[in-house]
Automatic annotation (TrEMBL):
This is Uncharacterized protein. It comes from Smallanthus sonchifolius. It comes from the Eukaryota.
Amino acid sequence: MEEVNQSMKLYSHPMSSCSRRVRLALNLKGIKYELINITSTADSELLKINPMGYVPALVDGTIAVSDSYAILLYLEEKYPQHALLPQDLVKKSINYQVASIVSSSIQPLQNLVLVNYMGEIVGPDEKLPWAQYHIRKGLVALEKLLVNYAGKYATGDKIYLSDLYLAPQLDNAINRFKLDMTEFPLLLKLHKTYSDTPSFQQILAETDKSVSAFIKLPED
Ligand SMILES: N[C@@H](CCC(=O)N[C@@H](CS)C(=O)NCC(=O)O)C(=O)O
């Protein structure tokens, strides 16, 4: 059943993988919301909700929640339709692990603010190798972790939390950071599945040239 919530607002950015996780969950759960695209982490409206100035941040009526993980847990409890976690404890723990690897060991190390800072202190040509190094390290672990669990999606034939984290991260790896994916056949297969999944397609296809141009690629 489609949930219509006129008072739900998501502060987001089209290229933000953290925002995309939440947008994918809202789509899956059939929750309507107002999308507010933020162009600066100094946006005063965003800072009132999230003093970090990062997206995503969610306002649901009188409740404000920031950070994709907190938002996803909140949504899961309040809107249980299309559960984001499987019942099976082992598969559930794999979902937690994937979410944790992406959100704490990959994304923060390739976040715009850090990559640009590395460019300033070490040199602009170091931005891309830095991001690729950390993304690759995480993907090596994820490819091994999922080999015994993947079906059509990361932990079986249904979309769960791990897919919400993986789909935007793989898109970043492939389309933004141009990582060579030859050593990740399983993750490449999942990326293809996500690109073919209607509820994922539009969100993954959005691009913002001003953001993708922030790194100097070798062929530039
Ligand atoms: N742990 C936070 C991380 C939030 C975060 O890093 N957001 C990024 C976009 S994915 C951001 O706002 N970056 C702005 C910048 O780097 O300047 C979450 O999962 O929401």
